[in-house]
Design brief:
This protein has 8 helices and 11 strands. It is α/β, with parallel strands linked by helices and 240 residues long.
Length: 240
């Protein structure tokens, strides 16, 4: 599999390491210093089979649509750009392309998502318990709350009708879900979901030990989309 890496920071380099270990080839590396070289012609000349896009909120939408226009399946893990997600999905459908987005590619986190949905449905009838989320990341992380925390929150809201929306940092009303974001080093990423009552608390936690889990999941997703058309998630990749 020939990979175009759109975003060649710490995550891009971790993805490259895993990809090379699995016998794949990286044919293009794009970062902030050579972003102007990214265009449809360059993508076609590179003869990539798939693009893995981990850039940033300011460039993700343009990068993804460029890759789709060039006929490349796109795996994206950029966060902070999701106001344009529906537009990307519509463009993918229009061009008969292939697109897979995940707020988190870690296999463990995606199992955690499923566990979170199950726990939320289980807790919904018990009104004495109220949910909250705490997420901890390194100080270089640009967005807060994390995309993973937002995914967790949206899943809780979907399963628990007592919660209307999530709020960041501020004190939460009875129908709001509070997300507390902390930034400190070193911290690859921790997410804690708590359901608290006056008498006890139930919590589930996912703690990343390195970027390798995210990178391995992204490569697995790239392998999954080979030969496919449509819009997918990590739930599809892991058959969840």
């Amino acid at each position: 599999m020939k990979i175009a890496l759109i975003g060649y920071g710490k995550m891009g380099k971790a993805i490259e390491e895993i990809a090379l270990q699995k016998g794949h080839t990286v044919v293009m590396r794009i970062n902030s210093l050579n972003l102007e070289t990214l265009n449809e012609e360059a993508l076609r000349q590179a003869e990539a089979d798939v693009a893995i896009e981990f850039s940033g909120p300011e460039s993700a939408f343009k990068n993804i649509t460029l890759c789709l226009a060039a006929g490349l399946p796109v795996i994206s893990g950029s966060t902070g750009w999701l106001a344009n997600l529906s537009e990307v999905e519509a463009y993918c459908t229009k061009t008969n392309g292939c697109f897979l987005y995940a707020s988190n590619f870690s296999i463990g986190v995606n199992l955690f998502f499923k566990l979170n949905r199950f726990l939320s449905a289980l807790m919904f009838p018990h009104s004495a318990y109220h949910p909250s989320i705490r997420e901890i990341h390194h100080t270089q992380k640009k967005d807060a709350p994390s995309g993973t925390a937002i995914t967790i929150a949206e899943e809780i809201i979907e399963k628990s009708e007592r919660v209307r929306k999530w709020v960041s940092g501020a004190a939460a009303a009875s129908d709001e879900l509070r997300i507390i974001s902390e930034r400190k080093d070193p911290a690859p990423g921790t997410h804690i979901v708590s359901w608290q009552s006056e008498i006890d608390e139930i919590s589930i936690t996912h703690e990343a030990k390195s970027r390798k889990g995210f990178a391995a999941g992204a490569v697995l997703a790239a392998e999954y989309v080979m030969g496919k058309r449509g819009i997918f998630t990590m739930q599809d990749v892991l058959d969840l």
